[in-house]
Amino acid sequence: MKTLRFWMFAPALAIACTSATAALVIDGRQTQLQVSTQIGFVGSVNSATDSRQYSSVTSDLQPRLAGSDSGSGAVGDGSWIANYQYQLDQSIDYLPAGGFSASASVTLFAFAADQGVAAVDAQSGNRLELRFHLNTDESYGFTGITTDLASVILEQSAGSGVWNPLAEPTAGAFQYSLRLAAGQYRFAAVSSGYHDSSQGAGSSWAVQLMTMPEPGSLLLLATAVGVGMVAGRRQRRNE
Question: What is the pTM of this model?
Answer without folding.
Answer: 0.80
